[in-house]
Design a protein that fits this description.
alpha+beta; three-stranded antiparallel β-sheet; two-stranded antiparallel ribbon; 4 helices; 22% helix; 22% strand
Length: 158
């Protein structure tokens, strides 16, 4: 579930890298030495050629055999300049989810007021990725994919 969530909602929409020496990218594009190249992580993670016609859908089972290509999944970038906190955040997410799901059920309140700088996007109005199967609050201006949704925590009956 965590990998599929990071595929659909990566922490950053893209990363920039500088070429080391003159390159021919994909046998088509000439990249000069030190030229910057932008890698669109969102575009990569929603690419139907890599992920199939259901690339916009949340399907954790697609990870049963790993990613379809070595570089198809880059939520934290790759190589020596990748995010140094990637391992920590994965462990932190797993522990948090287990503890929350052991003790609570979640429900979105009927009336959610977006925080300053955010706007509510209804499920039916979502035109661009990430596609979330509920109403969510998106940050209006950010370098990162800023979204949140308010939840009521309902204590589980034991």
């Amino acid at each position: 579930c965590i990998k599929e969530t990071l595929r659909l909602v990566p922490p950053a929409a893209g990363v920039a890298r500088g070429a080391k020496g003159d390159q021919i990218l994909g046998g088509k594009w000439r990249i000069a030495d030190k030229e910057q190249v932008m890698i669109g992580i969102m575009a990569l993670h929603y690419n139907e050629k890599l992920w199939g016609s259901d690339a916009k859908e949340f399907r954790p089972e697609r990870w049963a055999n790993g990613p379809p290509h070595k570089y198809a999944f880059l939520p934290f970038a790759s190589g020596p300049r990748a995010c140094t906190g990637r391992e920590f955040t994965i462990v932190e997410q797993k522990i948090t989810f287990v503890k929350l799901l052991q003790n609570f059920d979640f429900r979105r309140p009927a009336n959610v007021q977006p925080e300053e700088g955010y706007t509510t996007v209804k499920r039916s109005e979502q035109l661009y990725p990430p596609f979330i199967d509920m109403d969510v609050e998106f940050k209006k201006v950010t370098a990162f994919v800023g979204l949140f949704s308010a939840f009521e925590l309902l204590e589980r009956k034991r």
